Structure prediction request, 303 residues.
Amino acid sequence: MKPTLLLLAAGMGSRYGGLKQLDGVGPNGETIMDYSIYDAIKAGFGKIVFVIRKDFEQDFRERILAKYEGHIPAELVFQSLDALPEGFTCPEGREKPWGTNHAVMMASGVIKEPFCVINCDDFYNRDAFMVMGKFLSELPEGSTNRYSMVGYRIGNTLSENGTVARGICSKDGDGNLTTVVERTEIKRMDGVVCYKDERGEWVDVDDNTPVSMNFWGFTPDYFEHSEKYFKEFLSDPKNMQNLKAEFFIPLMVNKLVNEHTATVKVLDTTSKWFGVTYAADREGTVGRIQQLVDEKVYPNRLF
Prediction:
């Protein structure tokens, strides 16, 4: 069975200043996610599913979804603040989405096969899709609790225009993930990569440290684990009182790994990341994509 690609496109784009998922960066107005989908098709993925906000559905269907007709089956699902388990209500005053793992949960009704989760505003490069596609397609039918992630070197994932958020990873001798810690402020200072810890202090980290770029591989049982743990997350008063608390994918993955419920293989890749975390990143991204087109890695027009 061909794996599915789940694209997280429900973010508000607050740091970038707009709906960056719809921003054209290719020579014919292609978005970053167009390149991800093109690479996923080349890697053998059989379906794409987008998680978006309901309020830009029409624009998304007209500008994005229509172009994939005839290339790969596509579906939409929606993330909203009130999409909560029975018995829970959204706290008054909350405006921020519930986070990446909550977004993943929105696709439980349309994904029944191994699937890969990515961000829509990150350019991952083709090799990453090839190694993930190979892992997922080679899983025995009915596999459960055998997950994966593509690990990037942290030094290759930074922005020159501000801090970035990354999941800093550790792995065991078998190449399986042991921990992933979400660090929301990472940057290079005086030539050294640093992240801000819980005490607000900057901590040095080696350039080659593996990080999660939200490039995950799961089997459908992951939805059941997420539903159960999300209820625990919402039952914690501090998460309901904090109007910015988020249910991150690394939070869910850590729990499953620490409880020995699942294994997560850290997949090596030759790919280097780039993206548009900030508006000032756009010019460099456009230039890098044009270079790849000039080198015939991608056609001038994708779809």
